Amino acid sequence: MKKIKLITLLAFALMSCKDESQKILEKSSYENLDKAKQLRISGSVDSSYVYYAKAKEGLLSLNNKVETSRALTNLAIIENDKGDFYASIASSIEAEKLLQNQNDSISKSIASSNYNSIAIASKSLKNYKDAIEYYNRAVSISDNKVDSLKFYNNIGDTYLEQHDIKNAKTFFQKALQTTDSIDYARALNNLAKTKLLENPEYNPIPELLQAWKIRKKSKDNIGINSSLATIADYYIIKDKNKALPYAKEMYKIATQNKSPDDRIEALSKLIRLDPDNYTENFHVYSFLTDSLHAARNNSKNQFALIRFGNEKLKTENIRNENHILGLSFALGIVVLITTIILLWYKKRKEIEVTNTQLKMSKKVHDKVANKVYHVMSELENTPDMNKEALLDKLEGIYNISRNISYEDKDPILEQNFSKQLSQMIKSYASENIKIPTIGNEESLWDDVPDNTKVELFYIIQELMTNMKKHSQASRVLINFDRENNLITILYSDNGIGMRSILPKNGVQNTVIRINSVGGTINFDTKAEKGLKVTISFPVKN
């Protein structure tokens, strides 16, 4: 009955720790999503991209498909704006997969925006057939009539780029049915351009000026520049003197908007229309063109690095999950140990309380706590560890903790000591931490007393645990040597040095242990990098 209670308590501790970690991850993921949106609205697009990427990874690990697709769609839109069209399509396709079989209104809204993003990227890559297909998908899935009419405008623009005047005109006329003033102005401006292409004698100015007026009233700066560009282009053909003021105004607005694309387009017109300032405009045009090209390449590289970092983050998340599992397991063991200590205390209450607690604390530290960290280290370095092997190790720790109060002989002495010592040291090694050992032969320990072996095992285990937790070392060397009846052990690592030395209690424990067998331990305080420890003790026959 007691065993069932202990197992139940352990399971509860593990579940509680996992639930808490999920809550923390969920909170941070939504905070990253909100922060990304705020940064994008404020114009900090690059920073927004970073937080959308973080949100995407967190939400994906929570298996929140809808919100993950929202983050991915926004990543795709930003990549589109930065000219990284292939990356944009890749992000959108990933979002599209997550939205399959999602039929709620939120999912449909995200999906329509995502299809629109794929269409824009495809159009920019001159894949007009794909662009129209995805615009139509956006229309078919959208529950919002205003959005659908906006997509019609995009379809018309795609046909216009292919010089398909008939279809372009049809979709612009459909788009005019919108109740949104900005969308209406855009459709009106585009329809006027199309009519001019259809009939070179057509006068589009009344419609173009009306669209410009609506855009100014709505403070649609991007639309204002589009109107100015269209009007300037018309007058470049009909009357260059009238075109110049519109080109100058376009350049002014583009500069205020901090829009390099619009500035470059305005300058290209000014170079043709303003011969007095040709040289100055040409130099600025060349400079901006080169700068924009470099900036977009930098953005592509930056986004690629972020995506690469997210792949590493996935690996890190797996490691963190293992770490959380280890911590949860350790917490359960602590609860278990505490319960065992209480039971033991009841059985041995006639023993003086203070001495009993000190002795128990030492045993828990040596035989359970370090063993727990030992298993955690193995789990971290062996992510594909067999469940049965892990359960066997847990059962071993359980048996040790269960018998800790009345154990006579240390389990370390039940098998070949040299082999057990090597296995313990090896368990702390990983792909990033190499731990060669020299001289740990079976014959070295032949006439060493059992109590000395036990003390040496726990001293070395203390050093290895400290190295793994604190030292940041990538290489550890342990050398065993014997001359006559004196054994010397040299420990060295390339970590951060004396800053990572054992905590005060750890130092005291190792000193007490080695003194108990007549030996000495020295910590090299002069080493500029790494830690060096010398342990020596006599063999008493």
General description of the model:
The protein has 541 residues and is mainly alpha-helical. α18 links the parallel β1 and β2. It is built from 19 helices and 5 strands. The chain has a domain of 125 residues: Heat Shock Protein 90 (2-Layer Sandwich), CATH 3.30.565.10. The two termini are 48 Å apart. α3 packs parallel to α5, α7 packs antiparallel against α8 and α15 packs antiparallel against α16. About 1% of the residues have low confidence. 73% of the residues lie in helices and 6% in strands.
Task: Describe the secondary structure blueprint for this structure.
Blueprint: H1 2-42, H2 45-61, H3 65-81, H4 85-98, H5 105-124, H6 128-141, H7 145-161, H8 165-175, H9 181-198, H10 205-218, H11 221-238, H12 240-257, H13 260-273, H14 278-347, H15 353-381, H16 387-402, H17 417-426, E1 437-438, H18 450-471, E2 476-483, E3 486-493, H19 504-516, E4 520-523, E5 531-538
Parallel strand pairs: 1-2
Antiparallel strand pairs: 2-3, 3-5, 4-5
Helix pairs in contact: 1-2, 1-14, 2-3, 2-14, 3-4, 3-5, 4-5, 5-6, 6-7, 7-8, 7-9, 8-9, 9-10, 9-11, 10-11, 11-12, 11-13, 12-13, 13-14, 14-15, 15-16, 15-18, 17-18, 18-19
